[in-house]
Amino acid sequence: MAVARELTAFQKNILTVLAEQPRYGLAIKRELESYYDDEVNHGRLYPNLDDLVSEGFVEKSALDKRTNEYALTDAGMEAVKDDLTWSLEHFVTDSERAELVDAIVDEA
Fold it and tell me: Where is the Transcription regulator PadR N-terminal domain (predicted)?
């Protein structure tokens, strides 16, 4: 997991968006823009998506000739869970954390 922990916050946010469901690039862009309340330009999004694909956290497939879909791999889901677990360690008790992680894993 050392590599997953070296991801940028922006890359982790992309993984979080994809944890809900696979999406095409513009849908990821819209979700991130909603979160950041600011424009996310293509020159930032797509190189980061390509890096996540190269690192094995995301898989890319063609929806049609012009549109790619991105989905989390097992390593990507583990990266999301690892980041969430680490964050929760700093904000909740052990019993609360176990309940939250179990609930998240059950939904995934």
Answer: 14-81
